[in-house]
Design a protein that fits this description.
alpha/beta, 7-stranded mixed sheet, 20% helix, globular
Amino acid sequence: MGYVAILLIVFLAFVAISAWPNVGTLPKGEFLTRNEQSPEWHGEQFQNPQPMFSNLRGGIWQIFASRPGEEPDAPVPTVDSSTTYKTPPASGLRVTWFGHSSLLLEIDGTNVVVDPFWSERTSPFPWLGPKRWYPPPVSIEHLPRVDVVVISHDHYDHLDRASVQALYERGARFIVPLGIASHLVGWGIPSDRITQLDWWQEARVGTLTIASVPSRHASGRLSARSDQTLWTGYALIGPRHRVFYSGDTGMNDTFPEVGERYGPFDVGLIEAGQYDAQWPDWHLGPEQAMQVGQEVRARTLIPVHWGLVKLAHHAWTEPPERFLAAARCSHADVLVPEPGQAVEPTTHPVVPRWWPSQAWSTRAQTPIVASKDGSPNDLYAIPACP
């Protein structure tokens, strides 16, 4: 028993040491004071105006089970656009999706990296957790000049320590929701390179205005105290072009106001993957993502938050299939670029289908419909689709 206890202590120490650099630092001092001044701070944490419903039938462990089709069984095609970046976009707006929600936006002369994720796993552990299906299509070293990095929230698939530190070394500035500065400062990013925003607050980067807009989600990084940092979406407003990024969000009532304040948008980058009917308020799902694109008044839509790691039980190709099916009903303009492919949305490029055909569940088979108030008895209505 003594040897078992020693081995257990050694193992737990190994686990703690391997995770500790990535976990981050909870807000305290001036960071906590700033949180407490937010209208979204209630008691000792941030809260959504609309509570979230979840019902984990089978317990938390069912999330980690894997079913056929949920991950690729062949290499996913990618594009290395590093040579493309040598020339600025002719239209003034270019988007590169690297998989999941990691993006490069070249907008009216300002270069923005969104929720960078270049590491191997979405986890505090380098040896455990959801693993990416393919290497980064473009290395951080081969990106063009990076003026600013925007972070939507502090979950591991959106706030990656190694990526943040590498982009800081390239001279980037950071715009983050309230509380996340404490993580960045703990990782060696000077506070004068970080701007924290509450919902509806704005910051300027060159000629670009970046506004934090509400989302319906949660936060936390392997700590007993969750929701100590805020979650957000963004509106990016340039002299000529406008981009909406949803961040991670469930359906909520703020999207029409975002469209009124900051739209219409040339492109909407809407999370459309990693959803489950057991927790429908945490993520949009494809049909509600399409509806959000319409509510914020985005002319072209690109589905994100899919195509890199498995975080939910649906076929890995299901998000674009259902998103395109919804687009046929609403006549929306949709682009689904290959990971790493740089596209200029305002030029309406034709992007051939690149993912394989396989079985997937339709809207009718697996509806994802959010609650309005955290109760399954009061749901949002999704427009009918013949």
